[in-house]
Structure formats: structure tokens, C-alpha cells
Amino acid sequence: MKKSLLLMGSLSVFGLSLAFRPIALDEEPQTKVQLGEKLFFDPILSSDRTISCATCHKPEFAFADTAKFSRGVGGKLTDRNTPSAMNLVGRIHLFWDGRASSLEMQALQPIAAPNEMNLPIAEAVVRLEQHPGYASAFNRLFKQKPSAQTLAEALSAYERTLETGDTPYDRFVNGDDAALSASAQRGRLLFIGKANCANCHAGEDFTADRFKNIGLYDGKTLQDAGRFTVTKDSTQMGHFKVPGLRNVAITPPYMHNGMFKTLRQVLDYYNQPDAVVKGGHNRDLSLSTPLNLNEAELTDLESFLQALTDDRFTAKANVTKP
User: Fold this and answer.
1) Contact assessment for residue 252 and residue 109, using Cβ atoms and an 8 Å cutoff
2) Are 294 and 187 in contact (CB under 8 A)?
3) Is the dihedral of CA 277, 279, 285, 288 positive or negative?
4) What is the mean pLDDT of residues 214-231?
5) CB distance 130 to 146 below 8 Å
6) Which of 15, 152, 239, 264 could potentially form a cystine with 104 if both were Cys, beta carbons 3.0 to 4.6 Å apart?
7) Against a cut of 0.85, is the pTM above it?
């Protein structure tokens, strides 16, 4: 159904304490993808050379982070929960607030962000120019010296390979009726029916590439205005990008603010929003009434969400085999 994971190396390190780094930092990249991969794991792109892209986008957790907020240079916390960097091909909005419209635009922003890698892009380019290995690689692969544009192109080339499609769900829709347990099959019907999840989480990556206000903004204790910070459109106050759901079982905590630690907490919220957050500003009308899912239905729905986990991650996450 979907693209295969095209990482340059084996994922057999999952389940071990080793960092996933299939191309060594002293190895000469032979393609733009390998160059981007090397840069993704190299702390040269942070101001104090202590963190890399992979510090927050951890390969063993589907290139997400399991912290509520990730730590940048100097221990500074990010403003929002780190989303997965996987399955982003074809996305037209990136970041929780959608401020980037391409992977190239997205790739450079964490490098320059003061509470993330805190390195001005111009300085990053100078570092790469002064690094014999990188200077040579950019000249060979791009036919020019490093620049903001070629740095973005290299990183995004690597990110475009981070696609997964080897899940129980994919095998089921491709004709293997035994790929999903009875519980997960019931959960799939709930997902597209009573629970109304597919209204927002549609398509092969389970995102409609839209922005929704699910009630997690009240201007008081929940003050992140989301999409409004970009557009200044008052109708988008509290709107956030609908995330994809592939590998969602291994990317807790959830939501832009990491307020839910488990999938069940997420489902409990959607089931009865007012029981969890009262006074959400302009919450979407689709959440105006409780779903009234019972415990068995919530369990089935969670089983289906777990079935969206690529086989490479299942053992690491201890995800229940659908």
C-alpha cells in the first residue's frame, strides 16, 4: 500500500541502547541522501556542538521524542512536543502550526531556533565550508559549495526516505485477513464510523493535512494559540495541524503540548472532552457531544491504532501484536 522504509542501514539496532547511525560521521557520503543523513546525526549543526537533529527526533521512537518537551542547547526546552519526522512526503504543512510548506523550509528552522540548536544558518554554512569532508561532499554532490539551500536540500532528501508501510494494517488492506486481530478489526470500523476519527485522520498517513481546534486552547491554562500565531486569523485560534498516525503507538506523549501520556488518555479525551478540559475556546463542532464509546470499544480502537506500527518498531515499543 505504502512506501517502504528506505533507511541507509539496518534497523537491527532497535531494542538495543545504541544510537541509530548507519553512516559513520567519518564516512564519505556518496549521495545527497547520505549527506543529509550524516548531517542529521552530526552535532556540528548546533551552536555548542552538543546536539543533532536526531537528539530530538530519535530513530528508535519513529524519529519523535518521548519527552513532553525536548531539550535544546543549554538544556532549554522546546515550545511544543517533538513530532515524528517520518512519513512526511507529500505533506503540505509542517510543524504543529504549519509555518513551513515544504521539507526544505522545515529543515533549517530547528537549526536556527534559539531553544533548539541555536545556530544561525549563515554560521552553519561557514562551518560546513570550513569542514574538509563536508565542503568536498557538497562540491561533489551539488557542484557548489555549501549554502542554506543545499543544506536544506540535503537534509530534506534524507527525511524523504523515512517512510513506513510495513504494518499489520497495510497487510490487512492488501488482502491478508489474518493480519489484524478481531479487536483491531472492530477498532478499524469504529475509526471510520462511530468514533469519527477518519474525519480528520484520513489518507494513507492518516492525516487530512488540515488544522483543527480540538479544544486544547482556553487562553488561560492552555495558552498556545497554534495556527493563529502564524496567520493572525482569529478564526484559527487554537488550531493545530492534524498529525499523521503511523507509528503513533510509540510516539508518546501526545498533542502539541504533550499533555496526554498514553493513547488511552487521548481516546478518553475524544470520548468525553468536557470531562478532561472544560472551556476549550471554539472547539470543533465534531467534538461538541461525547462519543459514548464503552470500555470494550475504546480497547478495540486502541488495538487498531497499535496496528499502524511498522514491524521494525513493534519489539522496541512492546506494542501488542494485532
Assistant:
1) no
2) no
3) positive
4) 96
5) no
6) 152
7) yes
